[in-house]
Amino acid sequence: MSGCRSCRLHRPHAVPLYDDSGRRFLRAAAASLFVFFTLWKGTVMTAYAEAPDAVPASLVTVQSQYDFATTVARLRDTLAARGITLFADIDQSEAAAGVGMSLRPTRLFLFGNPKSGTPVMDAYPHAALELPLKAVVWEDADQHVHIDYQDVAKTLTPYGVDASQLAPLQPVAGLLRAVAGQ
Known about the structure:
Layout: H1 23-50, E1 59-63, H2 68-81, E2 85-91, H3 92-98, E3 106-112, H4 114-123, E4 133-139, E5 145-150, H5 152-156, H6 163-166, H7 172-179
Antiparallel strand pairs: 1-5, 2-3, 3-4, 4-5
């Protein structure tokens, strides 16, 4: 009898974690994962529900006086007229359509002047994460058009960029307000 102390016949209260088929273990693991992800999803969704409009302090939003297409054209024309390089114009709603999803009109622009940005990146290599500058033109559910951009000082100061190096980048705020008709 001493040789069978571990079998279920002699210890009916002992439930093995893993039986020959492995089903009990898999069921326990699946149940644990289900509970974990349910709680995690609830936490994430609760955090989102409490702050759906949470945005970084450096974000600036300007409402355009023009429709979406006109705002986009004004931005492209203004950049060209000022000799500012347009590195990319990404149509994010078109990209969404390419994967069978819909997105209100949204365009991301990457732009800048290498003469102004290069000294900043040379002195503060990590600041290259923020350069070139970016602006998003987007349309809300009420068909109002907005231009979002990051305040240059609030975005680059944490990298240690000093005021004298920020100065050549500061006019972008006025440029984007002018594009919006502000």
